[in-house]
Amino acid sequence: MAELELGRHCGVADCRQLDFLPFICDGCSGVFCLQHRSRDAHGCSEVNIRNNSVKPDQHRSYPCSYKDCNGKELLPVLCPYCEKHFCLRHRHQSDHECEKLDTPKPRMAATQQLVKHIIGKYNSKKNEEAKSKKRKGAKNNETAAKVALMKLKMHACGDKSLPQVSHVYFQ
């Protein structure tokens, strides 16, 4: 019967345990079992070299290219048009006065004009109706408002199990 090659043996000479989920050390790239996975447990030779090579406050910063700005970012913020580095405050084209400023074109200008025209017509019709149906006196206005509210409530649809005080009506 053929042997299956599953798992890997621990890299520590005294252990050599077969582990089906082995750990790989990021320092020396060795394969280890659960017991020897830490650098101290397997005596990693790379631990001192790695710790000395990386200094804790050593990181690259990207200064802002905008005039009179001293901002810096830890990650590069590049403008896709002029390909210069900027801080988060000046990252948009309009904020850093990009020489290749892409002016946005008005979207759906014809539709917007049509909507304004329709709204204008609707408002003028409403004003004419209001003038023709003008009622005299405050009492008539109050009564008209009450009647409109009653009609709204009468034709309202919704959950009838809710109490009357918690109903909200939209016209």
Automatic annotation (TrEMBL):
InterPro entries: AN1-like_Znf (IPR035896), Znf_AN1 (IPR000058). One of its GO terms (biological process) is stress granule disassembly. SUPFAM superfamilies: AN1-like Zinc finger. Residues 4-52, 58-106 form the AN1-type domain. GO terms for cellular component: cytoplasmic stress granule. One of its GO terms (molecular function) is zinc ion binding. It comes from the Eukaryota. This is ZFAN1 protein.
